[in-house]
């Protein structure tokens, strides 16, 4: 199930690195540490911080309860390189539900600590209940009928040639543990304004262990892909081309049913509104059978970059 990459890194190694990245280390009671992204530069990917925070919270839950929702606020951009500390508050432990509050922080050069994210996660013991599912999956091509986004990235990099700097080229062509196949065009693929909707299939490029908590964490990680960019589509602008300044402000996920992150999942995103320097984005994640797996909401800062003379 591997995606062709510009280097010879085996898919199993790429996915192994992702699993390692999202495996937090216990340092003390209710204190965990997340590894930095190997070779990462600039700001930490928001999906990484969300997934690591969720993993830390999941380690403090007993009794078979599973994460059913999380709500996170990004306070500051994390820096690649320093590890991230996750401190847990056990706000509630009931028979059916439990709640955890997580503060993610990075240490400064002077030894002080700076919070970069607050996350609250709720957990629920699985039970039988009334069911309905009134969220039909969009009618889109099957992933087997689509090219991978990496193939599109290579073509774009070749077309742009020297108009791309080394940092842009490295970011565009770096091997990824999650393969995406997009129906239509994302913001970095097109300059023409379009409807604020996007549809991308995703899965890891190699099989994952049978660990439901890990699969939820990777789905949370991937839920930060393409989401904020949906609000840029009606404006024909892109972060990749240096036309926008943006950052995630908050992020919420509701997990509706178990799903495997190493099997194709469809991420359908839409942006009902943007204005005042912000963009609102909604997402729905479906399995290949058309069942709704998760719902996502995010608001992000989105400003047009002012070019200096």
Task: Offer a quick outline of the entry.
The chain is an alpha+beta fold and 309 residues long. 18% of the residues lie in helices and 36% in strands.
CATH superfamily: Acyl-CoA thioesterase, double hotdog domain
Q: What would you say the CATH architecture is?
A: Beta Barrel
Number of helices: 5
Low-confidence stretches: 1-6
CATH class: Mainly Beta
Estimate the mean pLDDT confidence: 91
How many β strands by DSSP?
12
Looking across the biggest beta sheet, what order are the strands in? 1-2-4-5-6-3-9-12-11-10-8-7
Describe the structure.
Helix content is 18%, strand content 36%. It is an alpha+beta fold and 309 residues long. It has a single domain, classed as Acyl-CoA thioesterase, double hotdog domain (Porin, Beta Barrel). Strands 1-2-4-5-6-3-9-12-11-10-8-7 form a 12-stranded antiparallel beta sheet, covered by helices on one side. The longest helix is centred in the first third of the chain and has 13 residues, at 46-58.
Task: Name the features.
about 300 residues, alpha+beta, Porin, twelve-stranded antiparallel sheet, 5 helices, 12 strands, globular
Write the SSE topology:
Blueprint: H1 11-21, E1 25-28, E2 31-34, H2 46-58, E3 66-74, E4 84-93, E5 97-107, E6 113-124, H3 149-160, H4 166-173, E7 178-183, E8 197-204, H5 212-222, E9 244-255, E10 265-275, E11 278-287, E12 292-304
Antiparallel strand pairs: 1-2, 2-4, 3-6, 3-9, 4-5, 5-6, 7-8, 8-10, 9-12, 10-11, 11-12
Helix pairs in contact: 2-5
């Amino acid at each position: 199930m591997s995606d062709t990459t510009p280097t010879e890194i085996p898919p199993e190694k790429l996915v192994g690195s992702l699993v390692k990245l999202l495996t937090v280390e216990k340092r003390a009671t209710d204190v965990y540490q997340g590894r930095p992204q190997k070779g990462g530069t600039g700001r930490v990917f928001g999906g990484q911080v969300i997934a690591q925070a969720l993993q830390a919270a999941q380690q403090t839950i007993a009794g078979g309860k599973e994460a059913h929702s999380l709500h996170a606020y990004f306070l500051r951009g994390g820096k690649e390189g320093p590890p991230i500390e996750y401190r847990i508050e056990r706000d509630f432990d009931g028979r059916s539900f439990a709640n955890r509050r997580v503060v993610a922080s990075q240490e400064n050069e002077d030894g002080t600590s700076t919070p970069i994210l607050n996350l609250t996660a709720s957990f629920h013991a699985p039970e039988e209940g009334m069911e309905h599912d009134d969220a039909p999956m969009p009618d889109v091509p099957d992933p087997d009928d689509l090219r991978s986004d990496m193939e599109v990235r290579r073509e774009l990099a070749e077309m742009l040639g020297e108009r791309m700097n080394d940092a842009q080229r490295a970011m565009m062509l770096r091997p990824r543990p999650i393969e995406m196949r997009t129906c239509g065009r994302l913001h970095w693929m097109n300059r023409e304004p379009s409807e604020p909707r996007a549809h991308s299939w995703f899965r890891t490029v190699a099989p994952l262990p049978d660990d439901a908590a890990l699969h939820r964490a990777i789905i949370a990680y991937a839920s930060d892909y393409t989401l904020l960019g949906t609000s840029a589509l009606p404006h024909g602008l892109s972060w990749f081309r240096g036309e926008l300044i943006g950052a995630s402000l908050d992020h919420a996920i509701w997990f509706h049913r178990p799903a495997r992150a190493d099997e194709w999942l469809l991420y359908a995103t839409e942006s009902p509104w943007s204005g005042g320097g912000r963009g609102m984005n909604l997402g729905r994640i479906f399995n290949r059978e058309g069942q709704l797996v998760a719902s996502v909401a995010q608001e992000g800062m989105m400003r047009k970059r002012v070019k200096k003379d």
